[in-house]
Request: fold
Amino acid sequence: MGWSVAGGAAMYEDHLTSPLINVLGNGNVILEFDHLYKFEVAWDGGVVEMSVNGSGFTIVDDFTQHPYSVELQPELAGGADYGYPGDLNDVVVFSGPSNGFVHSVANLGNLSTGDELVIRFRGFWDWGFLQEPAPNWAIDNIGITQP
Reply:
């Protein structure tokens, strides 16, 4: 079963947040997922974030397969207050059309046995444009592994 969100015709943000994941070994942790997206290029987008041991969420940016591709417009990133929590300055995101489902793989870094990990998919839209047909972001087949 996957997650999808239609996006918004008004300023809008939506999240998919994982349950707490207990890390079972020491070493690099890898996130894999399939997704399709239809975001207004450089104005709307999506990122993957992570929290370890209750820390604040940080953007995952070490992709080895199908990484982010578009930098947000300066007006969204810092020139205007669109109401999105967190700093979006100089953020590169999934944006534009993926043209069907793609497979993304990201390194989450070296974690230790007993660490508690939470993954969050964060999508955001301004009020100017809605890609049709919905969904604007669909995520499926999420997996966490340690090689």
